[in-house]
Specification:
Bound molecules: flavin mononucleotide
Distance between the termini: 45 Å
Order of helices and strands: HEHEHHHEHEHEH
CATH superfamily: NADH Oxidase
Structural class: alpha+beta
Helix content: 40-55%
Number of strands: 5
Largest sheet: 5 strands, antiparallel
Radius of gyration: 20 Å
Shape: globular
CATH topology: NADH Oxidase
Length: 220
């Protein structure tokens, strides 16, 4: 493969704001992000397609190793396709909870009250399955794939929350069955499954605490 020529340079789009405005907006944003929760009980109501599209557009602006942008977002809204996804996921999850997961792992997630059943994969109006895109017939070799896709998913979660939707970061183990359900080639590797929608009216979430700033931040 030949190396690309040096890209032309364009001015950075940046507007400097007043420090006081920045502080206020940063604090408001942190408050808003603190409201984000992983939801496991969804209302069946449809979501605007344009919101999902814009959130994925936002996610695809994420930085990536060598700007390879090694991600694919597969949006499932077709009920038959979501049913297949749920059935395949539950078969894997049943084996995970029955014998694949270590006692230590089951202990770590016991407080969340999750089990092998994944009705949200069918109830949520949309499910976004995110894939890492590795080298293949139509894709170049990526660098720092996990980091890049993780950052893009972080932006996606933030964008969905900002737009007023809820989601869950769901990681079935193993995940290869997702290639078949989503009809994706081998070089695309499943990364995460994200049901998206509105919470069910009676949805409850675990009463979790977040670490305080002085525990997560060190300043010298
Ligand atoms: C990488 C990753 C994988 C996760 N996998 C699952 C999962 O498979 N099933 C699930 O119910 N929650 C899963 N979660 C959600 C976490 O349990 C949840 O983020 C955590 O308990 C904090 O709750 P919050 O998201 O409401 O702040 C996952 C989260 C992350 C970041």
């Amino acid at each position: 493969m030949t190396h690309a020529h040096l890209l032309p340079r364009v001015p950075i789009q940046h507007r400097r704001r007043q420090p006081a405005d920045m502080v206020r907006e940063a604090e408001e944003f942190a408050e808003r992000m603190a409201q984000r929760r992983s939801v496991r009980d969804f209302a069946p109501d449809p979501v605007p397609e344009k919101v999902i599209e814009a959130a994925i557009r936002a996610a695809s602006t994420a930085p990536s190793g060598a700007n390879v942008q090694p991600w694919r977002f597969v949006v499932l809204t077709d009920p038959a396709r979501k049913r297949r996804l749920r059935e395949a996921a539950e078969a894997e999850e049943r084996a995970f909870y029955d014998h694949r997961a270590s006692t230590e792992w089951l202990g770590a997630i016991s407080g969340l009250g999750t089990d092998w059943q994944k009705p949200f994969l069918e109830t949520a109006p949309a499910v976004i399955v995110v894939f890492e895109v590795h080298q293949g017939p139509h894709s170049p070799k990526p660098y720092y794939v996990k980091e890049s896709v993780g950052i893009a998913v972080g932006v996606l979660i933030t964008a969905l929350h900002h737009a007023g939707l809820v989601t869950l970061t769901h990681t079935p183990s193993p995940m290869r069955f997702l290639n078949e359900v989503c009809e994706r080639p081998r070089e695309e590797r499943p990364y995460v499954v994200m049901p998206v929608g509105y919470p069910a009216p009676d949805a409850r979430v675990p009463d979790l605490a977040r670490k305080p700033l002085d525990e997560v931040m060190i300043r010298w």
